[in-house]
Design brief:
Elements (H helix, E strand, L loop, with lengths): L1 E2 L7 H5 L1 H4 L2 E3 L2 E3 L2 E4 L6 E5 L2 E5 L1 E2 L12 E4 L11 E4 L6 H7 L5 E7 L10 E6 L11
Parallel strand pairs: 7-8, 9-11
Antiparallel strand pairs: 1-10, 2-3, 4-8, 4-10, 5-6, 6-9, 10-11
């Protein structure tokens, strides 16, 4: 987990995202998502075994720093029409800790985004917390 006021403290890790963790994804590049907590209450709903975190997109790449209360891709902020919700199981490793971290502006969490087939129209799906590794899409 990245525990700093800014990703600049971990710049060596984030600077190499393009080479170390970017993966071809149906003709494009998929990067890890980084979400930074805030002092306010996060917008999280839990329904059954699934949590849904509604977030605001940062306007710059995570490698340049993630503003408290926002999420950003490693190489850029969010784009027009991109989903701004993250779905995950609170019982998955790191799930409860992620919810707690969302209340702390000093913690930025890297998240591996899953590639469900077909993609969910309502949210990005967290596959693993505290990880920047990516796996290619394996849809037929």
């Amino acid at each position: 987990m990245l525990r700093s006021k800014s990703l600049l403290d971990n710049f060596d890790l984030v600077e190499d995202i393009d080479e170390q963790s970017a993966t071809l994804y149906k003709g494009g590049i998929l990067f890890p998502l980084y979400c930074r907590g805030s002092a306010g209450s996060p917008s999280i709903t839990i329904n059954g075994g699934e949590a849904k975190f509604n977030f605001k997109w940062g306007n710059q790449a995570a490698r340049l720093g993630v503003t408290p209360g926002t999420c950003a891709w490693g190489d850029r902020g969010g784009g027009p029409g991109e989903r701004s919700s993250l779905c995950f199981s609170p019982s998955m490793p790191g799930g409860v800790e992620f919810i707690e971290n969302l209340r702390n502006p000093d913690i930025t969490t890297p998240i591996k985004i899953a590639s469900p087939c077909p993609p969910r129209p309502d949210c990005l799906v967290a596959e693993k917390f505290n990880s920047i590794e990516q796996t290619p899409e394996r849809c037929p």
